[in-house]
Structure formats: structure tokens, C-alpha cells
Amino acid sequence: MVSLPNLTKDQYIQILNTLNPNSITPQSNVMTYVATENNSVEHPITKSLSLIPPKPTSSLPNSSYTASSISPDAPLPDVSLVPSLNPTPNPPLCHSQHSREANVHLKDFFCSQMNLPPLKLPSTSSTSILVLSLDSSPGKQSEEISIGGIVDLTTHIGKEERAAMQVAIEDLFSDVDLNSPTLLVKDSRGDPTRAVSSARNLIKKKHVAAIVGLRTWPETFFVGDVGSKSKVPIISLSNEVPSWSDSNRPFLVNAARSQFAQMKAVAAIISSWKWRKVNVIYEDINSAVSGIIPYLISALQDAGSEISELSPLTPAISDHSLSKRLRDLKNGQCRVLIVHASAPLATKIFTNAKRIGMMEKEFVWITTVDTMNLMDTFDGSIISSMQGVLGVKSYYSRSTMQFKNFRFRFNSKFRELYHHEPYHEPCVYALQAYDAMRAVSLALTDRVPRSKSFQNSTNNSLMLSISGEKIVSRISESNFEGLAGAFNFQKGILSPERIFRIINVVGRGYREIGYWTEKLGFSESTHAASKYNKSMRLLGQVFWPGGPWSVPIGWAVPTSAEPLKIGVPVSNPHRDFVDVVYDQLGRGIVAKGFSINVFYATLKFLPYHLPYIFVPFNGTYDSLVEQVILQFYVTFFGILRLNFSLKLEKNFDAVVADMAIVAKRFQSGDFSQPYADPGLQMLITARTKNINRAWVFTKPFSTSMWISIGVINIYNGLVVWLIERNYEQDRNAEIRRGSLLNQIGYMLYSAFKTLFSLNVDKLSSNLSRIVMVVWLFLALVLTQSFTASLSAIFSDQGNDLATVDVETLRSTGAKIGCDGGSFVVAYLRDVLKIHPDNIVRIYSEDDYAQALVNEEIAAAYLEIPYLKVFLAKYCKGFTTSGPIYKVGGFGFVFQRSSPYLPDISEAIVKVAESGALKDLENSLTSSYKCLASDSSDDHHRLRVSSFLGLFGISVGISTFALLLFYTYCWPIEQIAGPPEQAAGPGSPARGHEPTATELVARGPAAHEPPARGPAAHDNIHVNRKRSSSGSTRTSHISHRKNSHSY
């Protein structure tokens, strides 16, 4: 920038016409002269402005010109009339940037006409454009450009921001031969009213080009209005500027990064350790309530956790009130606390928490960046009260040369401004202020100036005077790598933070245990090759409050003074599951039943003692579930204030009952692992069908059993036949007579005759008798089993029962019964499409039997557990029909995200695996001493597996006897020969007895018994003589036969 001496306009025109007479007219006040390298081509361009030329005698004070370089072929830019920005008291040098010193006649003549010192131009081959701007406004002096700053100098953050802004201006303009802008800082002391007053003073009196600062949203809100009315850009450093502010305040730019992602990091920490409920302590300022707290609630819900209590605290809260609020949280069950507050309030919270014993075992404290970003400024007493605290801290690279250079200069500037303050590492807020000031300075310059901190700058440039709209536009188009990260805007919003440090307060300071990156998770470093995990367990050991290395469970077990309140239903139609009676001694209520017994068994498998009390509830099951719901209600007041009011609709901590698990009940609470099988089935009266019973006698034995009996009978008969046939020597014996077919028929007859008669005495061989005895024993067992099974089939009234389906009931409009207060009513109406008028609500289990017998209802739908108990009581007259619909199942109800629910579900699984649940189910039905009927005949059928041992013994003995006979007896019979040869020729066959015809021919004497006395003796003597010839041979044969009989 160069200020020219006071000349009249005619004098300026005369000078310019000397250079190019045709280029300037009296109405022109801007002339652009283009000179090439050899000064052979001239392109004068004039632009007329709508200004009334002054009188020839009027002077144009403090006119100025600027120089810039473009290509000779590029179109020349429009040049506007601009005032001088840098008045210089001494005569300045005449600048014509990037023009060759030789052969440029413009330079020598122009400088000589203005009596300015000669200009030494740098050697270059580029074309120069000299823009001469004349200000025709008489009396208006040029002013030095200024940039305003509004910070809270009562805080350490405000002091660091002021030092960082000053360092940024010095870095940007330290090597530029121009006067740097002046930084004018005002102290708001955190008061929006003072901030507004300071902004008006800076704009109206100091004529600042822009204002940077405003750490809080209330300050930003009101100052943004002032900037929009004055058309001065306001660059805010507040972390929570709502998106809707852009449309209402076009001159407001938020240069601070959104911290919403930090809430996802906090939720990821909660999820890593499976803590399902947390308490949130937050500073009750507008930005926290309207901005980041809803993000925290959403992030926790996505992680499977929820907020137990919200505790807003004012910044000026007294220690007494704060201690009372902390004690209220201490008396609750939740032990995980999230603190989102400024550093002063956070230090007060931890100091009081340590004093009342909340920094001990079982407690978990997690803080956000508002506290952790200033950890370096805390003294030893504060750090000692924060031992074991986990937190997230803003991430920025501390290893770059740019940061190291800044840290050195920041240290010097901070000591210069606040020498009484202890030095600390610059926090992220100082880095944000530095980047914001750099963006504003770049928006006020034509090119990026060369400086110590930005080695990529190539051109020096003079300051431009541009409108506020242009400054806002240039800032929004910024794209550079700042100290706090990439400085670029996406849809008008500065790119948010996506990486955070995870720190743990230990000893005299803190340690960084890892990093969290959005959409990636936790890691030990930020390198490209880092391994990421959704759980922070990857980061290693964490030091928890109180010193334990074991992870706190995140909640406190209830004490006897404050036990769990468990709701139990009073009006229950199925008393075998839950029965609530009042103690006659006045000691409260007594709950019993299957569901209560399952709950008792579950408590035995918990790793801790769980105090509880049963509270009766008289109402529907749906109403009972709604008693455990916890609801938040949000109320808006005005534009800026958003108040949270917590309304607690919780009468019970849990519900223990035969509560069916259905979808709509999940809106009120969470269910445990089911302890009863799901299912819904139809119950009807038992009616037999008119079926053909002609073949019912075959039902006692299965098909394979009948085949096995036939095969074994035939085999045993064959063995006996073979032994007896070969043993009998008489060819005229019945077993040896006739054809082969006749002998086979005799064999089969003998085989099956054994099943019904005893003929062991008629057998000749002892081996046959052994086979027959075993065979008879098998036949006896089979006949007795057959008789018993057939009797059971005939006596079973449930055999071949008539079936009923839902289509028939629906088409005929039959009445269907169900529990009046259960989900079954809606299921029959909405799913099975039963007309509501045909649904009969029943409120007692005994009423089902009466209604079915009296035909008040055609069928009833009951859940499977109820159905088992009903059939155990009324098994002789009722049965089930139709398919089983897989709905329901019983479970216990707890509050959503209850810390007890995972342990209860795990304990129920252990009860089932130990067999205790099965024993409880058996005791539920066995007390009625009546088994449920089974309509299938297969239940009574006997199979081969039941008689496999007897069949094996029978077949084995028969086979052994047959082998023994052919091994030892058969060869002897072959050696002895046939009986005719042994008796000799003419001898009658042994054992021959007269037939009936012979006895008649012999006369009566043949039938008379032998005479007694002498006559008889003589007769015997005669007979002995007649048979004397063959007596010896007969005696020998008889002796042999008796000796070898088996």
C-alpha cells in the first residue's frame, strides 16, 4: 500500500495521459496500465465509476494504488475503488510488483512525476498490472485494519486464546513488508451482556473487520445478532452452536469443532464393561441441555444402556447443595457416573465426591473433554481427588514441526502477557483460536503470505478491503491443516472431531491408555496399521477409583433397608403357578406356586444376595408390566432454554409371575430367559370316533413283534420235529408217517399248538423236552403280555378320539374359551380370526372343565404350561387337538436395561441345566396322580426290543439242542441199524399192539384181565414158553434203548 501526495484530479489525469493519452478521460478515476517485457505493447483499460468528478481544483487526498500480477492473456479483473488502508507518515517507496527493472518506462516516469524515491524492482519476466485507485471522498482518511477478540480473561482458557490469537497474527505477517493488523481484545468475563457491549464498541468505534472468540453459546447468540446487523463477521469458538443459527445469523461462523462424537466415545466405554445404567451429572447451561445431552442419551441407547438419573448442576452451586445431590446419587443403586461440566465445576464435584466417600470401590467416574482438556492446569490436590477417573480428551498431533514451533512461540507470548501464571502445555482451545485467527487473516488477504510457520506460502500480498459477506465466504472456503486438525467446512460446519484420547487419572497426573476413533473403535495408536476393537479391554489394565484392578460391576446390591420391590399378581386364574395369600399373623403376604418356586431356585444361583419384598398387585397382567416402566418427559421453555423433568412411573423393580413373553410388553420392560416352554393349543372334551375294531387284536404287538413270534415258533417246532423224527425208530409212528408235506404240516401244528397246550410228556427225547420247556416259558410271557396290552387298549377311552380344528370352529361360529386377562384374547381375535362375540373369557381354571362338559364352549385355548396341569387333573375326560402355536412362554420382568437381568437370565439357565426346573415341573403335575391321556395305540404296543432277551435264550437253547443231538445221538442210531434187523427174521416188531379189529376177533378173553390163582399162573407159564425163543434178543434191544435215550 502506498499513499500518494495530495494532487488534483486533473494533475493525476495529466500524469496518466503522459503515459497513455487515450486511456484516461475526466470521468475516469481508475486506470490499469499493462507493460510487457520489451515495452512494445500497451493495453490501457479504463473503468468508469458512477462518481461525480470533483471540481478541477479539488484535491484527492491520500489516494492509493495497489499492484498485482496476472498473465498477459488472462482477462483483466474488474477494479473497484478502494480506500487506503495503511496511511504512512513518511513518503513510501513506489511499488510495482513483479515488473522488470529494465525497459519499463512506466516506473521511471511515474515515480519522477510524484517525486517519489526510485523503485527497485525484482527481476522477473511476468507481466505487471498497476491498479491506481482514487478516492473522491474528500476528508476521509485511511484507517489501519483491526481484528477484534472477545474472550473470558477470568479463565485460563480465555488467556490462552488471547495469546494464541496474537501469535497467529505475528506468524502470518512477520515477513511481510506491511503493517500487520491490530488485535483488539475485550474481556467478557463470561457475561453475554458485556460481550454484546464489547462487540458494539469494536464495530462502531474501532471499525474491526471481524470478531473472534465467544467461547459460550449465550455470548455467541447475542453477539451474532449484533454482527448480522452490522454486517461484520463473528467467528465463534463455542463447541455447541446449533445448526439452525446459520440461517438466522448469516455473519456467524462457528470455528470450533463439534464435540458430539465424544458422546459416542463415552458410550463405547460404557458398552465395553457392560454397564447398563448410568447417572449423568451435567452443568445446567443452555448449550449442554439443548445440544450435547440428547446426543449422549442417544449414544447410550445405541450401546444398550440408559440413563438412570439426570442431575443438572448450576455453575454457582454451593458445596452444601452439591454434597446433598451427590449423597442422593450415592444412596441409589447405579455406581457409574458421567460428568459433563466445565473444569471449575468438575473440580468442585470431585472434591466433594471424595469427601463423602464416592471415590472408593464400586464407583466409576467418566468425564468429557470439557474437563479432561484442562487436566494439565489442575493442581495436585484436585488430581488426588480424581484418582481412577476415566475420560476422553481431544486429539491433536503433537509431533509435527508446526505444533512444536507454535508451542515455543506460544510459551514466550503467554509468559509475556501473564508472567504470574504457571506455564502449561497449550490446550486444544488455544489451538482452535490460532486456527480461527489464521482463517480470518487469510480471508483478508489476497494471497497466503510467506511466514515462519507456513512454508508452503509463495506470495506476499497487500491487505484488501473487502465486504463482510466476502470474508464469511472466504472463511467457509478455507481448507488447510491447522494445529487442531483439518480446517475445512462441510455444508457450513467445521469438520468435527473423530479421534479422542482415552486417559486414566493415576498418581500425580494421568496416562493415555489408548485412542477411540469414530466408526472404528479403540486402538493403542493412531497409525494406519493400528488394530481396532469395539471394546476398550484391548487397551489393557485400568486403574479404578479406590485402587482395585478388578472391573466394578457398576451398581450396588440392594440392602435390607432398601430391598427390591417385586410385584406379584393377586387375581390369577391358575393358582398352581402364582397364589398370593395374606398371612394371618399380619406379617404381610405369602406367595407360592410354580413361578415363585422357580424364582426361589434362581436366587440360589446368583453370585450375590438379593434382598426383595413381594408387593401384591390387583389388575391385569399388562397393567402389572407397566408398573416397571421409567419415562422421561422434556419440556421446552422459550428459544434458548430446554429443561428436562424426570417423571418416574415405577412402582416395582421387577415382576415375578406366570407372565407370557409377548412383543407389546417389551415396551414397558425387559424379560428374562424363559423358564416355561412357549405354546398355545386347543383343549376339547374326549370323544371317540366310530371306527372299525375288527383288527384291534393286532394292536398289542407291533408288526415286527408278530413276525418275530412266527419265526421263533417255526424254528422251535422245526428243532423239536427233527429231534423227535430221527429219535423215533418206529416207522409207523405219526411223526414219521405220510408224505413230506404231511410231516411239515404236523411240524407246524406242533409248533403253534405249544402256545396253547402242554405236550411235553408225549416227547421221547430229553433234548426236545428242554427245548419245549423254554419255548413254553416264552409263550407264557407272550400270552400274558398280549392280554394285558389288549386290555389297556380296550380300556383306554382316549383311543382314536375325534379331532376338532380351528377352521371348523370358526365356520360354525362355536364358542371358544380362554383366559380373560391374557394375551390369548387378542391372539384369537387378530391371528386366528375368531369373532369377538364367540370368545368367552374365563377367570378360573376349574370353570374350563365345567364349561366344556356343559357344552357352553366347544373348545378352549390354553398355554402349554396351563394345559399340562389341567390334563393332569382332568385327564379322563379331556384331550388336546390341533397344532401348537409357538407364542408366549413365561419369564420374569425387570426394568429396561436392569443390571440384575443378565444375572437372573444366567441363573435360570443354570436352574434348567441342574435338573431343578424339571423337578419343579414334575412336582407340579404329579401331585394330582393322574396322567394326561394319550390317544395313540403305540403307547400300549409291545415291540421286539422288550423281548429280545427271551427270544435270544429260546433260539440259543434250540440251536444248542439240535447241534448236540446230531453230534452225539445221530451217529449211534446209524450204527445200531433199523429195528427190524435187530429183532431177526420172523420176529414181531417191538411195541406192536393188537388193533381194535384184532381184539374183537379174539373174543372177550382178550379184554379180560389175567386170571388170578393157579389158572393164572399156568397161563403165564404158557405165555413165557411161547416167547422163550425171542426173550434174549428182546431184552438186549430194550437194554440198549434205555441206555441211549436223550
TrEMBL record:
Keywords from the named record: Disulfide bond, Glycoprotein, Ion channel, Ion transport, Ligand-gated ion channel, Membrane, Receptor, Signal, Transmembrane, Transmembrane helix, Transport
Residue spans of biased composition, Polar residues class: 57-71
Membrane topology: Multi-pass membrane protein
Cellular component terms (Gene Ontology): membrane
GO molecular function per UniProt: ligand-gated monoatomic ion channel activity
Regions crossing the membrane: 705-723, 772-794, 947-968
SUPFAM superfamilies: Periplasmic binding protein-like I, Periplasmic binding protein-like II
Biased composition (Basic residues): 1036-1046
Region (Disordered): 47-72, 980-1046
Subcellular location: Membrane
Cysteines engaged in disulfide bonds, as pairs: C875-C930
Domain Ionotropic glutamate receptor C-terminal: 565-926
Domain of life per record: Eukaryota
InterPro entries according to UniProt: ANF_lig-bd_rcpt (IPR001828), GABAb_receptor_plant_PBP1 (IPR044440), Ionotropic_Glu_rcpt (IPR015683), Iontro_rcpt_C (IPR001320), Iontropic_Glu_rcpt_pln (IPR017103), Peripla_BP_I (IPR028082)
Protein family: Belongs to the glutamate-gated ion channel (TC 1.A.10.1) family.
Protein name per Swiss-Prot or TrEMBL: Ionotropic glutamate receptor C-terminal domain-containing protein
